[in-house]
Amino acid sequence: MDLNLTPKQKMLQKKCRDFAQREITRYVSQLEMDPEFRSGLYQKMSQEGLFTLLISPELEGNPLGYYLGLAEISQADAGIGVGMAVTNMVAEMIQLHGTPEQQTKYLKLLRAGTAPAAFALTEKQAGSDVRNVQTKAVQDFNNPDVYVIDGEKQLISNADSAGFLVLIAKTEDESTAFLIDRNTPGVEVTKKEQKIGLLTANLVNLRFRNCKIPESQILGKPGKGLSIALGALDSGRIGIAAQSIGIAQAAYEAALHYAKTHEAFGEPIGKFQAIAFKLADMHVKLSAMRQLLLQACWAKAQKKEYTLEASTAKLFCSEACNEIASEALQIHGGYGYIKGYPVEKYWRDARATTIYEGTSEIQRIVISRHLLT
Ligand SMILES: Cc1cc2nc3c(=O)[nH]c(=O)nc-3n(C[C@H](O)[C@H](O)[C@H](O)COP(=O)(O)OP(=O)(O)OC[C@H]3O[C@@H](n4cnc5c(N)ncnc54)[C@H](O)[C@@H]3O)c2cc1C
Would you please indicate which residues are annotated as catalytic (active-site) residues? Predict the structure, then answer.
């Protein structure tokens, strides 16, 4: 396992860092408040190739360049990182499982400067329990080339603004993945959730009512939806590890700056061992997070199963991210609790990382099953 970044990996990391500094960092509050402004940013991300970076030949067989780039975007704003992560996950699903026609149509859309993509798996009783999907896709009695979809999906990122989505629905006894254009009749946004963080990513509920989808929109083979979804989640979990590194790095940098510049008892608070040790612990955790990201990318690049490494990185990085964001807030004292200082946002954004793409409890189940079989 080579720990040195290649010139291409450094280049992709820098490309995303430069993009984030130019297009995101200064505009976060506008991006949070104005969906039009956000849509303009998404167009630029698409045109820069950031929506399909995970399937880019520039990665040279190791996805690390993409995940480092995702960390840079998430350091600037984790909600925009969600849009990038989900869209790349969908792009990878299409590259792995799509027909040539699906690849031509949908990957072109993701490169053409339009909208991000969404991934609709979660339902009221099917969050952790992904096998319990109840949304049904039934072959039309009069036209077996068409599936009729009925059901509801909950907590789906950016499904209101997405151009298309991958839906996991139940066909007979098994799940099947469908590619669905967002403007298809019968697809409706029923609720926009009010979240505590990630304010630049919308989270919505969807209803499918008598939604007719041609068989040609099935992604992969019928009945293989769950295994396609679980494969995508392995990849997505490395994405959450990367996102956690981005948020944690931002929180650490804010805390380090505050520790050097804010004074109490006549000296910078960084001179107090209690504060200095918190910074040391943050540095150690961030170093360990990066190593687990490298390990997971290395395992994925071997083209073998990498579920264990992905869950390990996701679990550790998301938990450490929350610890770092919380300690960064503590170092800011009362001002950490005040809007206007960036740490309260990092703390709110961090909170989702131990929940989505499988909670920490589910990661422990995945990891322990690997150890015990
Ligand atoms: C910001 C955000 C964005 C999201 N984006 C998407 C998206 O784009 N697409 C999508 O499909 N979903 C998305 N989700 C949904 C997310 O993946 C689910 O919320 C998550 O998987 C947990 O499912 P749940 O909310 O139904 O909780 P539940 O599964 O009901 O779990 C509730 C609690 O019980 C615990 N628990 C459940 N089962 C077990 C068990 N067997 N053993 C031990 N503990 C258990 C859980 O860990 C959790 O603490 C998003 C969620 C959030 C917060």
Answer: 357
